Amino acid sequence: MHDSYSIRAKLILGISVLLACPLMATTPEVSSSPETEESKGDPQQLLIDGDQLADDTKYGEALLRYKLAYQQIVPRLRGLDFKEAVNPALMSRSELLQHLSGILEEEISDEQMRLMDRGFKAFGFIPTSLEVKSTLLDLYTEEVAGFYHPATKKIFLITDVDQPKSRGLFGAIFGSRDPFNKSEQKVALAHEMAHALADQHYDLDALQQAAKDNDDRSIALSSLIEGEATLVMMAETMRESGNAQQVLQISPEYMKLSFSVTKGLMPLATGKTFRTAPLIFRESLMFPYLQGTIFVLHLTNRGKWIAVNEAFQKPPSSTEQILHPEKYYHPLHRDLPTRLVLPDLVSVVGSSWKELGRNVLGEFQIKTLLVKQHGDESAAGWDGDRYVVYENTDGQLGLIWMTTWDSVKDAKEFTVAYREFLHKKISLGSSSETSLDVQALSTKDQIAADSHWIVEQRAFHVAQRKRDVAIIEGFSEEETQAIAERIFHSKKIVAP
Fold first, then answer.
1. Partners of 358 in beta bridges
2. How many helices and strands (H and E) does the chain possess?
3. Neighbour tally for 445: CB within 10 Å
4. How many CB atoms lie within 10 A of CB 209?
5. Which of 305, 309, 330, 310 is nearest to 320 (CA)?
6. How far is CA 283 from CA 46, 125, 369, 465, in A?
7. From CA 220, how far away is CA 210, in angstroms rounded?
8. Domains annotated on the chain, with CATH
9. Which of 258, 323, 346, 366 is the one with CA 20 to 30 A from 399?
10. pLDDT digit string (tens) for 19-33?
11. What's the CA gap between 209 and 23, in Å, rounded?
12. Averaged pLDDT, 268-280
């Protein structure tokens, strides 16, 4: 899935969405204007005026008042100043669908979309029958409440003027979603203006481009970005009580417990597509907000907003650091991921195979993949990985995945978990009887001890060598043996 982050970034993270969850008619864009007495007015009064305008269905004018208020409020909460005006606009859900569809058509090639689709299917994240493009469009059109687009420097808040609807049990309890929910719009605007502010100081687009070839790193970056904006949003909700800055000292463990409850309520607050989407889509959507906020709280507990500023200057490089913040902020023992450079495989992979791309999975996606095999434990101790996805002329998929771990024990725990996962995957995916006996690829003792299955003349192989684990799936036995003999010669580089 080479450059797959650029796909998901443009749809999800790169536009910095805010989910329409219990945490939190087409109208022209609000144009920037020179500073006036009105724009310097009392922020609280501007918010009150905006609410009144919204009650009168003057949504564009209401948004202008909210914008003028948050131009003052957000910098005070965050401790940074806007360098230039930010111009939000309202967008209906039908327009959002058109916008996201346009991104897919204009910026994402069919080949890029295909490799993301095949990559998810090669690992077993999604069923082979799922159509990724339409699922992603439905998911984000349904759930997005707002987004900031670093490339255009624009904020869009989503309204339901064109299709107001109930949201399952949550809607039954709390009422149908309003066409212009004042509280939701203000929360969303505070969140997205925090993104705009960060962008003006730290160039979010440049940060995202630097991470585009590494899915794990890009998710980690997004977690910092979304965690910071969510904390600003929370500070805004506590502002009127005079407790805005106390949000920086909220216990990360308390927030983790709170989010665990929130996560359990998500099915009540989300739409049908979210509830039925594959786990990897649901988890990827929530992770930057939930785990990202916990990560940022670890920073603010230690050094308030200064620590967050420093994190933007040296962003986290893995989801391992997001899941285990101590592996990021320890000044002497920062746990940097190992970058694996795979050996040349052209000569050992048959000519019928075409490489679709390569990338990094990382701890977060591994624990999601192995959720039924105690993913928290089996993915812990990750130190680095690299995979390549292939497709042959018959449409079959091949996967070569090299991983390295902090210890032999960690590698063993992952190996045991993945063997169980793979056993179930190939059993479910096979149309013929599966050989579950351990078979040798050669007479070599080490290879003979590895886990090996044959399914419809395709080999599935799991091999551990001390701290390293190699996984080879979907190739012929001859190709698998050649790959197995070469893959452990991968180069290791400790990458900042």
1. 388
2. 20, 12
3. 8
4. 16
5. 330
6. 37, 11, 11, 31
7. 12
8. 4-323 (no CATH), 338-494 (3.30.200.100)
9. 323
10. 544 344 333 344 444
11. 30
12. 85
Residue 74: closest CA among 63, 60, 86 = 86
CA distance 275 to 259: 18
- List of residues 6+ apart from 293 with CB closer than 8 A: 226, 227, 230, 231, 234, 255, 259
Four-residue CA torsion sign, 301, 303, 304, 306: negative
Which residues lie closer than 8 Å to 385 by C-beta, 6 or more apart?
A: 340, 360, 361, 362, 366, 401, 402, 403, 404
Q: pLDDT at residue 431 above 60?
A: no
Its pTM surpasses 0.85: yes
The residue type of 173 is: I
pLDDT reported for residue 162:
59
Reduced DSSP (H G I as helix, E B as strand, rest coil) percent helix, strand, coil of the chain, to 5? 55, 15, 30
Residue 316 three-state SS: coil
Do 341 and 296 meet the contact criterion of CB atoms below 8 Å apart?
no
| Environment class of 382 (CB within 10 Å of its CB; exposed 0-12, middle 13-18, buried 19+) | buried
Structure token digits, residue 345: 């495989």
The one-character DSSP state at 402 is: E
Q: What is the DSSP string of 22-87?
A: TT-------------TTTTS-HHHHHHHHHHHHHTT-HHHHHHHHHHHHHHHHHHHHT---SS--E
